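Progress note, sequence design subtask.
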């Protein structure tokens, strides 16, 4: 029992010391005033495709009821996840024993990556420095997105692959409950 108490006190001491080393982070959180303008929790409103003629349609990869969350801290570090909620479950119940179709649906029905965001307000560009992604080709890459920010809505476009290709669009709503 005494060893357990010692371990608990040690963890509490380390936690307290760590919290005291970064008073600016504690005050930012306590005052809810982020250093980074996009800091907070964002909930996906829509995953869409912008066609060359200007028409917006639902992105079939994620479906009409796409779910997602984008969390950004006061330094611009982020975690982003978008899911197609109706992806079929693996019939085996084991993710190591899926069929090729189940693996395809599982992978193509998500977009998730982590890293850091920078904002170029003059050109209305977000720069995603992706550290890791579900799609490994994006690991350690930098991607840019044109964006619009109005009130608590963030809209951005993933650049088209070619001149007349469709453009993927994400629309996010700031979640004031957790900010």
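Output:
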């Amino acid at each position: 029992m005494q060893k357990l108490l010692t371990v608990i006190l040690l963890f509490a001491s380390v936690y307290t010391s760590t919290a005291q080393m970064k008073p600016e982070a504690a005050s930012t959180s306590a005052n809810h005033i982020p250093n980074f303008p996009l800091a907070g929790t964002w909930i996906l409103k829509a995953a869409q495709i912008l066609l060359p003629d200007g028409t917006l349609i639902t992105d079939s990869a994620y479906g009409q009821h796409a779910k997602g969350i984008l969390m950004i801290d006061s330094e611009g570090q982020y975690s982003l996840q978008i899911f197609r909620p109706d992806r079929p479950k693996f019939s085996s119940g084991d993710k190591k024993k899926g069929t090729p179709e189940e693996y395809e649906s599982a992978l193509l029905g998500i977009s998730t990556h982590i890293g850091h965001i920078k904002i170029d307000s003059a050109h209305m560009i977000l720069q995603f420095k992706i550290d890791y992604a579900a799609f490994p080709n994006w690991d350690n890459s930098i991607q840019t997105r044109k964006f619009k920010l109005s009130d608590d809505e963030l809209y951005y476009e993933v650049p088209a692959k070619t001149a007349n290709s469709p453009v993927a669009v994400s629309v996010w709503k700031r979640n004031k409950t957790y900010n």
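The two ends are 39 Å apart (CA to CA). Work on this subtask will continue into the next period as scheduled.
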